Amino acid sequence: MRSADATQAPRMVANYLTDDRDLPPLMEGLRMIRRIFAADPFRPKLRDEIMPGTAHQSDKELISYLRGNAQSMYHPVGTCRMGVDAGAVVDPELKLNGFEGVRVVDASVMPRIPSGNTNAPTIMIAEKAADMIIAERQLVRP
Fold it and tell me: Active-site positions?
């Protein structure tokens, strides 16, 4: 969060490829794909490599390509992990630790990425949050 003002968009920093250990597997993956498509039966069917392009061969060129183009295909989760330990960002009622009246209701509260798509679990989280908010409001009213 940038501020207590709910109209301010949150600051999101994914930190993709900030750890140098991320790069070697991706570079090897690019090179492996090139080897596969350079072999029969693919080679006769293909004209050109579009991305990153055959001009990108050195480690430096591949790293530059990856930093400019790589993206996550996973649905990010866990950035506001729910729990009861010191590392949890939200409590089991999805209340943001250290803030009054703020809940996080999205896939970021999942401690780990599920084995399937995140859509259904996120809907479940939202439904449960709605139930908790309604129950809490009913307790507050006279």
Answer: 75
